Amino acid sequence: MLKLSIITINYNNAAGLLGTIESVASQTSSDFEYIVIDGGSTDESLAIIEHYKDNITYWISEPDQGIYHAMNKGIRQAKGEYCQFLNSGDYLLKPDVTERMLRDMPQCSISYGNKIREIGGRRIVEKSYAGRQITLMDLYRSTIFHATAYIKRSLFEQYGFYDESLKIVSDWKFYLITVGLHNEKVAYRDIDMVWFDTQGISSTQKELDRQERTEVLQKTLPAPILSDYQAFAHEGVIIKRLKQNKLCWFLILNLYRVLFRLDKLRSRE
């Protein structure tokens, strides 16, 4: 069995698709297949796919019902042990990225590396959880990077494919269920993998993202647990903001110590 299936979905993003395909075609590893799912593009996307067809294991261009419908079509065609979702506009940073990720790969359900993106003109390396244990609270607040993740294909058979009723957060829902609720093993590789396209739907439609996350949490977590997590998360945001001001945090810690000592003195009376 091939180790990896790289899946690219695209719709009318010829420029982004070109960069993505070129980065995959340049990989030194041969232990992967490449699948392109196009949503019936009317720009130059098909010409690009045709030009690189010798580097593509399977491709199709037809109308689909959204991002996750396209991803699920790719999963159903995949033969690799793991799937990576590298959407058009994202690209692998170096020709040896796949080879390095697959070399001495740990036994796990999900393996992930680093993504690079530009924020305010600066190149930022984002390491997600950087190898520490991922908790349910982590996934309540955030997610595992999708483009840098190798996801065991058997997980989709076990837990179900991506929820096609969602437009933005179905991959996060999948992580919430598989890792947050069922403790599937996750391994981190400190490898710069993917340049992330910040013009994607998940980066530009923040309100829809918030609405879909709320809907998923209400359907996935029992009400008493969700209530606790909402309270903890709110307090966590406050603490995080306070910590950003060193003087403020120093004063708060010392005030806490004073109050703690006063409580101890009162308890002795």
UniProtKB/TrEMBL annotation:
Keywords: Transferase
Superkingdom assignment: Bacteria
Pfam families in alphabetical order: Glycos_transf_2 (PF00535)
Molecular-function GO term, any one: hexosyltransferase activity
Domain Glycosyltransferase 2-like: 5-128
Gene3D superfamilies in alphabetical order: Spore Coat Polysaccharide Biosynthesis Protein SpsA, Chain A
PANTHER family: COLANIC ACID BIOSYNTHESIS GLYCOSYL TRANSFERASE WCAE-RELATED, GLYCOSYLTRANSFERASE
Protein name from the UniProt record: Glycosyltransferase
Organism: Spirosoma endbachense
Origin organism lineage: Bacteria, Pseudomonadati, Bacteroidota, Cytophagia, Cytophagales
